[in-house]
Amino acid sequence: MLRDRNCDKNFERSLMYQINKAKIAARKMHNARMTDYNDPKSENDFHDAMVEIVAIAYHD
Questions:
Q1: What is the torsional sign of CA 46, 52, 57, 58?
Q2: Alpha-carbon gap, residue 31 to 12, rounded angstroms
Q3: Are residues 45 and 25 in contact, defined by beta-carbon separation less than 8 angstroms?
Q4: Which of 29, 59, 33 is nearest to 47 (CA)?
Q5: Higher pLDDT residue, 4 or 38?
Q6: Does residue 15 contact residue 9 with C-beta atoms inside 8 Å?
Q7: How far apart are CA 51 and CA 43, in angstroms?
């Protein structure tokens, strides 16, 4: 299958967006756990970002 440059840009852009989202959520989870606080929102954000990364990676 032939791909154009726009397809590659969209792939990289969406993948980097989800990776940055996962990094931010992981940092928030770590900071919350260091203060003995359970932050379900950051855990949910991290889970959603991981699911999206897997979906993007296996879509091709």
A1: positive
A2: 29
A3: yes
A4: 29
A5: 38
A6: no
A7: 12
